[in-house]
Amino acid sequence: MSNPTETLEFQAEARQLLQLMVHSIYSNKDIFLRELISNASDALDKLRLESLVNKELEVDTSDLHITIEADREQRTLTVRDNGIGMSRDEVVALIGTIAKSGTGELLRKLKESKDAGASQELIGQFGVGFYSTFMVADRVVLVTRRAGQTEGVRWESAGEGTYEISAVADAPQGTSVTLHLKPADTEDNLFDYADEWKIREIVKQYSDFIAWPIRMSVERPGENDETTTEVQTLNSMKALWARSRDEVAQDEYNEFYKHVARDWADPLETIHMKAEGTFEYEALLFIPSHAPADLFMREGRRGVQLYVKRVFIMDDCDALMPDYLRFVKGVVDAHDLSLNISREILQQDRQIRIVRRRLVKKVLTTIKEMQAKEPQRYRTLWTEFGRAIKEGLLDDVDNRETLLDLISVASTHDPEEPTTLRGYVERMKDGQSDIYYVTGESRSMIENSPHMEAFRAKGYEVLLLTDPVDEVWVEQVGQYDGKPLQSIAKGQVDLDGGDDAEQEPEREQQRKDFADLLSLLGEQLAGEVKEVRLSSRLTTSPACIVGDDQDLTPTLEKLYRAMGQELPQIKRILELNPGHPLVTGLREAHSAGADPAALAETAELIYGMALLAEGGELKDPARFTRLLADRLARTL
Fold first, then answer.
1. At what angle do helices 12-22 and 116-125 cross, to 10 degrees?
2. Please, are residues 178 and 76 in contact by the beta-carbon 8 Å criterion?
3. Is residue 605 exposed (0-12), middle (13-18) or buried (19+ Cβ within 10 Å)?
4. I want to staple 391 with a disulfide (CB 3.0 to 4.6 A). Which of 37, 324, 455, 624 is the partner?
């Protein structure tokens, strides 16, 4: 009795990606073979690891390998491995569905991209290399059986809206992918993907470093015009990290990076290091040239693989690299660890902690050298990964000073060029003791904030911090180079010097003149603010809202509430500009015995305007607009 065949639909996003592949969004189709070989290599790594961990799994690991078979007459190309294989559910999950977050964003960017190379990089960010087979094949057939299971699975698709899947009784362990090739485009490319020389060329260029033998049967002329068949290994299988730096060309590093990172763009930086002594290891690390789409997703991939004596142990080894450097890709090969070491044991292992410290130090030193010697490449790195690196200021106290030196942020000094903290300190005014900053959702919003007025008027530079993590690290770090980090939206600001004897009499008189009004407004707005006081940070706006030194910022308050944390109401301070006509007029009206109800409405309008000016939200927008409309109508 034959096994029934089911016809299933691809996930909607998968169908759209398949169409992009079928219609060849980029010209270099060779990479389809690299992707298949990489998948096969991963399957072999996983089988060897599983055989070490699961002693009940009865599998033969004596000759793990990858086989390539080409048939020019039948126009097929097959890549086969005897690795871990897949179950039916895994086939559906890994091929029928793109189980990656952010696919919608990928598709949007692909549609916007007019550049084939840019599209290629975008596809690479999402690790969907299997779909690249449809650039060169009209039909793809996959047969697989998971190690330890008795029944296999057959999957087949023409790259359109559906695929067929059925059970296979006699499938060998591992996975084979057979491509029914499209007609050879020999007029333009002068080759056929079923040609032996072309297969050799692709393997040599992209997959020579693969640790497993890649074999192919080839025919050679023999005696009496007969042909003989021999099996040849196409790759050298030399681990790049085990070779010295001068033995490896950058092109080889680039291809290895694309293999481990599942990226189709070259890395921004390569770090090759070797440690000898009591604990020996080699490391080959890469800083990508662009951020992966899942960089800030909880389920995103971490980058460093762990090997022990050339044996693959685990992907995404978080014990080797802190979370803020999760974008770093590569391999660490330790010589003295157990082959069946677990993640839990790694977290506690003293030697692993030493390796981690050294790796982090090397990565940060490399970035610092890039900052000093190659500012354009550093700018690329910071644009892509700066937000993640700043997370280290919260967790990595040992390297905090180095991280602070690396920070690059926008400031009022230059509308185009960001600044370092060191650059800010070097430009500080004589007598200036604090590093001034302001946080907010966007540069345009905070540049137009009332808090900026006095600083702009007096020529003080202000750092403009717009990343969510900025709200936290400036509070936790507190200072740089002995100089306090001071929010211009918190506490008292006195840019003229609080001990200026000439100005103190004028200020004292202002406090007396406005004392009654401030007291009245404080009572009327008691439900919204903790205090109403005069401001020294305003020049053109009538009012602004500030926090006490220890208050949460509004952005941080929103973040905590969005995370479900219960917080008490955080009342802030309303500051009035004593030189603004609206404020002086309000004081005069109060002194003349104006209607208390009218004064209360004016106080509410002033508070609402200050709240809107900093990007806040009104509790009752309808009431505010009604009060404003009524007040405007009375002026006509």
1. 140
2. yes
3. middle
4. 324
Residue range 93-146, pLDDT digits in tens: 887 665 444 445 555 655 555 444 444 444 443 345 788 888 889 999 999 999
The most confident of 482-486, 487-491, 517-521, by mean pLDDT: 482-486
Give the max Cα distance, the chain.
122
How do strand 137-145 and strand 174-181 relate by DSSP bridges?
A: antiparallel
How far is the C-alpha of 131 from the C-alpha of 96, rounded, in Å? 10
Instruction: Please check whether residue 573 is in contact with residue 529, taking contact to mean a CB–CB distance below 8 angstroms.
Output: yes
Q: Which residues have CB under 8 Å from 391's CB, separation 6+?
A: 323, 324, 469, 473
Q: Residue for token digits 């600083």? A: 455
Question: Among residues of the chain, what percentage have pLDDT more than 90?
Answer: 43
How far apart CA 533 and CA 456 sit, in angstroms, is 22
User: Quick one: how far is CA 536 from the chain centroid?
Assistant: 41
Q: Are 403 and 392 contacting, i.e. CB atoms less than 8 angstroms apart?
A: yes
The answer to whether 310 and 242 have CB atoms below 8 angstroms apart is: yes
User: Residue 367: pLDDT above 90?
Assistant: yes
The whole-angstrom separation of Cα 532 and Cα 537 is 14
CB 12 within 8 A of CB 169: no
Rounded CA-CA distance 201/235 in Å is: 10
Residue 141's closest CA among 331, 285, 5?
Answer: 5
Q: In a 3-state reduction of DSSP, which class is residue 341? A: coil
The DSSP secondary-structure symbol of 210 reads -
Name, in order, each residue with C-beta under 8 angstroms of 59's C-beta and a sequence gap of 6 or more.
47, 50, 51, 147, 148, 173
Q: Which domains does the chain have, with CATH numbers?
A: 5-219 (3.30.565.10), 240-380 (3.30.230.80), 407-487 (3.40.50.11260), 504-635 (1.20.120.790)
pLDDT higher than 70, residue 413:
yes
* Residue in 518, 512, 407, 515 with CA at minimum distance from that of residue 464: 407
Contacts of 534 (CB under 8 A, 6+ apart): 510, 511, 514, 518, 575, 576, 577, 578
Q: Which residues contact 481 (CB under 8 A, 6 or more apart)?
A: 421, 422, 425
Structural contact between residues 43 and 91, judged by C-beta atoms closer than 8 angstroms: no
pLDDT tens, 261-285? 888 889 999 999 998 877 889 999 9
- So what's the pLDDT on residue 340? 64
In the structure encoding, which two tokens stand for residue 101, read together?
């977050």
Q: What is the Cα–Cα distance from 346 to 324, expressed in whole angstroms?
A: 19
